[in-house]
Amino acid sequence: MFEPKTHKVLKSVKKRALIDNETYLDWYQQSTKNPEKFWKKHGKRIDWFKPYTKVKNTSFTGDVLIKWYEDGVTNVSYNCIDRHLKKRGDQVAIIWEGDNPYEDKKVTYNELYEQVCRLANVMKSNGVKKGDRVTIYMPMILEAAYAMLACARIGAIHSIVFGGFSPDALAGRIVDCNSTFIITADEGLRGGRVVPLKANTDKAVEHAARDGVEVRNVLVVRRTHGKVDWYEDRDIDYDEAMRLAKPKCPPAKMKAEDPLFILYTSGSTGKPKGVLHTTGGYLVYASMTHEYVFDYHPGDIYWCSADIGWVTGHSYIVYGPLANGATTLMFEGVPNYPTPARFWEVCDKHQVNIFYTAPTAIRALMGAGDSHVTSTSRKSLRTLGSVGEPINPEAWEWYYNIVGEGKCPIVDTWWQTETGGIMITPLPGATDLKPGSATRPFFGVRPQIVDGEGEVLEGAVDGNLCIVDSWPGQMRTVYGDHERFILTYFSTYKGKYFTGDGCRRDEDGYYWITGRVDDVINVSGHRMGTAEVESALVSHDSVSEAAVVGYPHDLKGQGIYCYVTPMSGVEASDDLRKELVKHVREEIGPIATPDKIQFAPGLPKTRSGKIMRRILRKIAENEFSSLGDTSTLADPTVVDDLIENRQNKK
Ligand code: PRX
């Protein structure tokens, strides 16, 4: 059995760090005792066209109202670009590293300004106005960052859809927020493989039209110059339009609570929700966490390997780092292409100081062997980060000892699409590290652990994680459905934000996230609702019923395990299995590819017809000896069949 040990803050780290433990404790106390005063001060880290006089106006009860800096006026793109031009106009803002290791580009803040202004003008001249929703479906290329910032510049609300989602999933998101302007590329390139983004977009636009949303324009970046269909009165060529556009565009005056972006994320029930983030508080929180969590110093080269299709890419590739005037690296490829040394070679090539990635990547690279790491220098590295899922202590130690050579603190950052920024995390110069623990709350974050009945648990305990007061980066609503916002997050435990995560607090007050306690699973750091996969399965003609659960997977963290009852008369064959995998990939996208499909003539249900997922989870985990009470099942014999035919036999 692996025994995690505590790693004390290294002297070398403490010496240069922005925050030591005394400062952490002091600031934390101030931030929770008098949040108004604390955030009044730190709100000034961004520039405001009109300063705020009100700081915090938030309530977790009743209608749930969350407003920060509400009478302030600012602009996110101005804060991420214009305000740096005087001091660091010629500094590199974004380093782009292509999928192909011989391809890279560097863009200075001056150049970023011009590109973003031109694109903002392209959008304006095509009728995009403040408050309009713009869908971005793009690979990891510079134009994706320009697109985000150009939206922010004119006050359009972007909704980024990850390139791994299918046309149908894209259509659903276009329709939900009634978005009529799409920015995409001809094709994406990942690990040498082509992703047909424009062709997917064409299908999605057609699908959206059937659902009543008429997409007016599709702006297309030529990434691969592959052949694509072209619709003259709808499609716009990016390069051509940019050439004609004016190189200056004033930033729109945005109220602090004007929306910045929508990002769809999965929950336990129903369709993905449009998480809405607004302007002022979000940027204050993203930039502040970026600075202190990664111990960012001016001049550092910072790399977050996420995709901009996820919240990590929003807050920690684009908005947080650029608001801080950092040099941020954007990587088009994947960790193991052309070889598993790629991450570390990129670190050497660009002299990366701060590197932020996901446990799933760390586990995969660990499996490929140390030689891919030790063949590189990694001398420039100073801080390492982890995000997206619990990191197992073995992977943590490997990251720490092999990648960081015992010299770089690991910040295991816990947060969510909904939280906008990092919530529970070590700070490099302040926090002794325990492998597998996200450690302590960031400034202003008040975690609480409750039991199933909502009873607050004190001391060293295990339970469900809630946050009891607002922080500036918090989501404000579910786009178009405030009721769902209240119901999802504030009704399980009245007056508290419920995270959906299980959590243990140890005797030192450290938090250990144990994973989701709802029907959300985390596959390779990608969040997925089991209900979404179920609804994709039952939409197939041969499927009568389906239940989906997660199970432990060595590389992915969790795998997708599907129980499927075929329609009567349909043969439960391997061909059907393949067909269903293909079907789910079409309905949702490759990221939802089922790992196991078990055909089951019946599912375990209570007499009132509710599927007992607890039993299904145990069988998927191969732990069927501890199924617990099955006597309440309508037909207890189905369990024997499920065990007999389980797909995860060891
Ligand atoms: O279960 C937690 C897990 O990821 C969920 C949030 O997923 P998403 O909204 O896609 O955002 C991911 C990136 C911020 C959480 O509810 N999670 C995230 N970070 C950690 C984590 N679990 C354990 N440790 C983490 N550091």
TrEMBL record:
EC number: 6.2.1.1
Matching CDD domains: ACS (cd05966)
Residue ranges of every copy of the Acetyl-coenzyme A synthetase N-terminal domain listed in the record: 24-80
Required cofactor(s): Mg(2+)
Superkingdom of the source species: Bacteria
Binding residues annotated for ATP, in chain numbering: 388-390, 412-417, 501, 516, 527
Annotated InterPro entries: Ac_CoA_lig (IPR011904), ACAS_N (IPR032387), AMP-bd_C (IPR025110), AMP-bd_C_sf (IPR045851), AMP-binding_CS (IPR020845), AMP-dep_synth/lig_dom (IPR000873), ANL_N_sf (IPR042099)
Binding site for CoA: 190-193, 312, 336, 524, 585
One example GO MF annotation: acetate-CoA ligase activity
PTM per Swiss-Prot/TrEMBL: Acetylated. Deacetylation by the SIR2-homolog deacetylase activates the enzyme.
One BP term from GO: acetyl-CoA biosynthetic process from acetate
GO cellular component: cytosol
The keyword Magnesium appears for this protein: yes
Residue stretches spanning the membrane: none
List of residues binding Mg(2+): 538, 540, 543
Domain AMP-binding enzyme C-terminal: 532-610
Catalytic reaction list: acetate + ATP + CoA = acetyl-CoA + AMP + diphosphate
HAMAP family reported in the protein's UniProt record: Ac_CoA_synth
Functional description taken from the UniProt entry: Catalyzes the conversion of acetate into acetyl-CoA (AcCoA), an essential intermediate at the junction of anabolic and catabolic pathways. AcsA undergoes a two-step reaction. In the first half reaction, AcsA combines acetate with ATP to form acetyl-adenylate (AcAMP) intermediate. In the second half reaction, it can then transfer the acetyl group from AcAMP to the sulfhydryl group of CoA, forming the product AcCoA.
Protein name: Acetyl-coenzyme A synthetase
Species per Swiss-Prot/TrEMBL record: Flavimaribacter sediminis
Gene name, Swiss-Prot/TrEMBL: acs
